[in-house]
Amino acid sequence: MAVIQVERKPLSFAERTYIPQVLGGLKTTFKHLISKKQTLEYPEQRPEIPPGYRGVPTLVKDPNGREKCVSCQLCEFVCPPKAIRITPGEIPAGSGREHVEKAPKAFDIDMLRCIYCGYCQEVCPEEAIFLQNQFSMSGYTREEMVNHKDKLYELGGTLPDQHFKWDKKKAAEIAAAEHPSH
Predict the structure, then answer these.
(1) pLDDT band for position 160 (50/70/90)?
(2) Within 13 Å, how many C-alpha atoms sit on residue 18's CB side?
(3) Which of 33, 44, 47, 159 is the Cys-Cys partner for 60 at CB 3.0 to 4.6 Å?
């Protein structure tokens, strides 16, 4: 087997003393010394959140204050790091939601495991889970970083419901308006 040798040109005196490299580094340093500062005084100044930002996953309620989540567990199934844990529960009789099969008894998201991928929001058929613009989460213990159902609803709040899925009467009125009888 033949060995190929590559000829290297000899280094000049300036290259052997590293003076051009040192001067290049000093040039960069002085350029940053005289440029405008880019420091934010956090938390008083917050960075702008770009559109489409995927922040903390939260649960939302409909405008009437009812849970939208029906414990289908799709978000739990699709979560890559398995950060979501749902315990399904029954709907109490006389609540006005008997047409819904189940609701979450417990809904936990471990924010230490969450990778903010947004799959949970994409897969939710009830539009019950949304990624909010919150980016600053902290805690002193691991337990503080697990968001339970009540905290998820507190962070999420309520969002308008475009489908009126849980209002049978309203949904029937909209369907009748869209498809008038002959």
Answers:
(1) confident
(2) 3
(3) 159
